[in-house]
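Incident log, support desk, overnight shift.

02:14 A customer reports that sequence design results differ from what the structure should imply. Their input is reproduced verbatim below. On-call engineer (initials T.W.) acknowledged and began investigating.
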């Protein structure tokens, strides 16, 4: 491991490479996460990538969010993937989500709602320009509709926190937090071919059993009148309160509120305040004092999930933790960081479920590092935030713009020339 000091020339090269990467992955108004592996527009990837574009091309940054919201459903949902153009390199694609003769334009599920956070970032970066005002005026009602969708479709019981119905919705697909809930019996599935395994080693990807469960959920949702939001919440055999989604939504509500004030939309502020008040209460149920961590909750059993994942620290990003809770989180975080050379691992390295190479079960993800750092700074833990920042600089300097990184060796894993890693190098690690 290096001392965390990198020559300016190395970082300058990363900046150039990052701009080059976004341009290379630009499919015209939207940025794919990586060639071959992910050839469509992904929801939270795009929202993060817009912040990267904003650093050198304001108009293109707004286009990213515009194109994302062009895929918004009438009910307000922003899908996890939008299939703008055909591709044969990803499974499950448009035919699986739709019908063979009439492929779907998108998936029927969503992903963490980063868009309002990103919209505020863009607006603040470019606040003196007329373009930002115009774009924000167009975007605001769509953002509001998407947050309203979360509450009507995913919190009909008014718990204050929303549910995800598929691990893909969390963005942390094979997190150990889903292991127990993903034990429901799978259906008889049509034969299928894992295309991800053509691009990335099986040792770094979810297992076949996990994919069988993913697809069982997909086919069951499709059977419910094509993903009817009124039904899915009640029939899904997987229904979790996810820390990542809820932390991002809580933070996004604050940014949506900020935008509403800027745009003079005072009429919606009380609605957003209600989400924030109820959310704040809802998070209290997710605190596990014994572990000193927040935990996801299985809504079907009512139990907190005992799984120490990096999502446990994201309530710092939301700002919902008390000072005492923050202190306990930081104590845990320090232990994790002391156990591996590069942080933040996506699972506690001292937990038996930790797998340093397998996707969301161990590797470091730069976007999560950014959120955790942002939260730590908010709570005044500048020293540990700096440590994570330095690790992120070291990982990207040594291994490049990879999808995720091995916390034990610092090696790059998964996809190469990955858009959200590039965006983070531009908007955060500059
Ligand atoms: C399914 C695109 C996406 C990310 C997710 C990540 C992975 C897809 C997959 O890639 O998920 O959505 O097929 O593995 O888990 O967070 O948005 O980068």
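02:41 Re-run completed on a clean worker. Output:
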């Amino acid at each position: 491991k290096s001392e965390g000091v990198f020559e300016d020339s190395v970082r300058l090269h990363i900046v150039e490479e990052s701009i080059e990467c976004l341009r290379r992955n630009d499919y015209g108004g939207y940025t794919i996460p990586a060639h071959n592996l992910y050839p469509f527009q992904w929801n939270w990837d795009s929202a993060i990538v817009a912040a990267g574009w904003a650093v050198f091309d304001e108009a293109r940054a707004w286009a990213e969010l515009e194109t994302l919201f062009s895929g918004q459903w009438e009910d307000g949902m922003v899908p996890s993937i939008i299939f703008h153009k055909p591709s044969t390199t990803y499974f499950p694609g448009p035919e699986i989500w739709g019908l063979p003769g009439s492929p779907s334009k998108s998936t029927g599920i969503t992903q963490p709602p980063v868009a309002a956070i990103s919209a505020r970032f863009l607006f603040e970066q470019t606040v003196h320009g007329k373009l930002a005002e115009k774009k924000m005026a167009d975007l605001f009602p769509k953002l509001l509709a998407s947050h309203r969708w979360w509450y009507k479709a995913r919190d009909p019981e008014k718990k204050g926190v929303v549910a995800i119905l598929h691990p893909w919705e969390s963005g942390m697909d094979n997190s150990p937090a889903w292991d127990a809930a993903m034990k429901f019996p799978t259906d008889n599935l049509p034969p299928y071919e894992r295309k991800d395994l053509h691009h990335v080693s099986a040792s770094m990807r979810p297992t076949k059993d996990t994919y069988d469960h993913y697809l069982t959920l997909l086919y069951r949702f499709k059977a419910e009148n094509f993903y009817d939001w009124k039904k899915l919440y009640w029939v899904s055999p997987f229904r979790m309160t996810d820390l990542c989604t809820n932390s991002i939504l809580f933070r996004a509500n604050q940014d949506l509120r900020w935008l509403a004030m800027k745009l003079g939309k005072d009429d919606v502020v009380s609605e957003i305040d209600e989400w924030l008040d109820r959310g704040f209460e809802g998070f209290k149920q997710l605190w596990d004092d014994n572990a000193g961590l927040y935990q996801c909750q299985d809504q079907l059993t009512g139990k907190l999930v005992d799984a120490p994942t990096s999502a446990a620290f994201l309530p710092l990003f939301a700002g919902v933790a008390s000072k005492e809770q923050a202190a306990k989180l930081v104590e845990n975080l320090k232990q994790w960081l002391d156990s591996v050379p590069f942080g933040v691992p996506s699972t506690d390295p001292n937990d038996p479920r930790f797998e340093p190479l397998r996707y969301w079960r161990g590797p470091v993800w730069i976007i999560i590092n950014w959120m955790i750092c942002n939260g730590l700074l908010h709570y005044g833990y500048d020293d540990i935030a700096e440590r994570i920042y330095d690790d992120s600089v070291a990982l990207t300097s040594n291994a490049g713009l990879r999808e995720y990184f091995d916390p034990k060796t610092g090696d790059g894993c998964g996809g190469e020339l990955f858009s959200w890693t590039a965006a983070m190098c531009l908007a955060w690690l500059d």
